[in-house]
Specification:
This protein is α+β, with helices and mostly antiparallel strands. The protein contains two helices and nine strands; from the N terminus they run αβββββββββα. The strands form two sheets. It has a five-stranded mixed sheet, with no helix packed on it.
Length: about 190
């Protein structure tokens, strides 16, 4: 192999090594792709047992059933809870849809203030449609629907594929250039 062919081959090899080095950060970026980070969501709810009974997102919007509350899977939901009738209430997120407070359900402490919010934080880990209701007054009087939409799939990242393709192209071009240089080599003088 001539000196020029060796130089071209070494240059192609060097480019492949550099391209591989550039691929390392892309691999690190690939490993960080996952579900979207949780989002903080605040929901205000007013509970009432006296007319109008039910739930509302304001003191003048109480209905039975209450409003449909929609979040994304993984969201951290902070409920700001008020008692519109100053009676005690307790919010239940009914994850098994049993219409009763059972193990695994999310629940707030009792609250009864019309002016000071009781805070209840709930992480929506499970996608689905669930009931919410007042544990004190029961499902039949104060209920609503809590929808947890499934987390969207993460977007694909083609960086690794592109870098890998570049490496292959550089190596193929380097090898082809070296092979062509060797073929173009002038024949030596004829033998004796």
């Amino acid at each position: 192999m001539s000196g020029t062919s060796k130089t071209i081959l070494l240059a192609a090899l060097g480019l492949a090594i550099v391209a591989s080095g550039l691929a390392a950060p892309a691999l690190g970026a690939m490993s960080s792709i996952g579900p979207r980070p949780s989002k903080a969501v605040t929901i205000t709810l007013y509970g009432s047992f006296t007319a109008p009974a039910g739930w509302g997102q304001g003191p003048n919007s109480i209905t039975e059933p209450g409003p449909t509350l929609t979040v994304q899977q993984g969201d951290v939901v902070t409920f700001q809870l008020y008692s519109n009738d100053t009676m005690a209430h307790q919010l239940i997120i009914d994850v098994d849809n049993s219409h009763s407070n059972t193990s695994g359900d999310g629940w707030s402490y009792q609250f009864s203030s019309k002016t000071t919010a009781a805070t209840f934080t709930y992480t929506a880990n499970t996608a689905g449609t669930f009931a919410y209701f007042c544990n004190i007054h029961g499902y039949s009087v104060q209920r609503g629907t809590f929808v947890v939409n499934a987390a969207p799939a993460p977007a694909g990242d083609n960086t690794l594929l592109i870098v890998g393709g570049v490496i292959v192209v550089v190596v193929v071009i380097g090898v082809a250039a070296a092979a062509m240089r060797m073929r173009k080599k002038k024949p030596g003088p004829p033998g004796p």
